[in-house]
Amino acid sequence: MIKTASVLGATGGMGYALTEALCHKNIRTIAFARSEENLTKYKEEWGPNAEIFAGDALKPADIEKAVSEADAVFHAINIPYQNWEPALSIILDNILHVCRKHKKPFIYVDNIYSYGFQTMPATETADRDPHTKKGQFRQTLSEKIKGAAVPYIIAHFPDFYGPHAGNTLLHYTFEQIINKNRGLFVGKTDIAREYIFIKDGAKALTELALNEEAYGETWNMPGAGTITGQEIAHIAARHLNKKVSFHPVHKWMICAIGIFDPMMREYAELMYLNETPVILEGSKYENRIGSIPKTAYADGIRETLDYILQNTEKSATF
Fold first, then answer.
1. CA distance 246 to 152
2. Quick one: 286 and 155 in the same domain?
3. 3-state helix, strand, coil in the chain (%, to 5)
């Protein structure tokens, strides 16, 4: 039973949502991140069940302090693509070492890069042959977790969107259309892709972590079906009460921007996901755990836009 949880990377999109979901379950939650300023601000939103601890995941002593009192450890730390290696490996090693030392269950937030190309909805047992550097790296991290001699959950998510999910593709587009009628949209606008409302993902992972029989396995966390960029633009236009159009950003444009922007340079190899999307199959979760929360895209997009609007207005007052 989890009475105290530690969320590492609590000020990021999924870290924030996980802390929120755990606190709503009346679970004492230790929120760990680098920025004490952001942690202090968010604690007011999380409420009394949240305790904050500012530290550096690259320092083993900080990880030790953050997880020593926890019954379960959620790893939601992410960093810019260009800094993945070796930082993510070092961070994972630090966390797994402490989890092994103190016999702590470990819950890992992962993406879909290790699935590589998939021609049909991917189950957890689908053949994987990641062809990108990042997919191969993620696969290496997963194998490290499986061999670490700790109880683990590896949860694969599609792209996030929602409040506090600032470092995501859809957030990048939504921010542009708040003040303009046109936004850049990464990939073709007529291809159906999968996203997950970040609050849904956090609730589903919290439920999974509370089930003792879920450990030692990999799990898919699918969103509420698929949606095209054109459909997203239509929802946004209706909610913002104005004309909205998306301009597709193609791979050659990403490569061109990458000459000057290291993050875009690293993202270029992932453009296949916007052309031949990976869709997650979630029947394993549905059959063994229960229904996955699935906020309709129309509702999730409206809430996300309202969040961006509110924060844009707050920024304008300072």
1. 40
2. yes
3. 50, 20, 35
The DSSP call for residue 160 is E
Same-domain pairing of 116 and 244:
no
The predicted-structure confidence for 233-258, as pLDDT tens digits, reads as follows 999 999 999 999 999 999 999 999 88
Structural domain contains residue 301: no
What type of residue is 306? D
Q: Work out how many domains the chain is built from and give that number.
A: 2
Domain assignment present for residue 111? The answer is: yes
* Domain of residue 180, residue span: 169-191+226-276+308-313
Strands in 193-197's sheet, in edge-to-edge order, are: 159-161, 193-197, 226-227
> Which residues fall within 8 angstroms of residue 146, CB to CB, at 6 or more apart?
152, 154
* pLDDT of amino acid 318: 35
User: Within this chain, do residues 216 and 182 fall inside the same structural domain, yes or no?
Assistant: no
Rounded-to-10 torsion of CA 178, 184, 189, 193 = -80
Residue bearing tokens 């707050």: 314
The ranges of the chain with pLDDT < 70 are 313-318
Q: Are residues 230 and 216 in the same domain?
A: no
With contact defined as beta carbons under 8 Å apart, do 19 and 10 qualify?
A: yes
Q: Which residue has the tokens 């301009």?
A: 247
* Distances from the Cα of 284 to the Cα of 96, 219, 226, angstroms: 26, 8, 19
With H, G, I as helix, E, B as strand and everything else as coil, classify residue 231.
helix
> Does residue 254 lie in a domain region?
yes
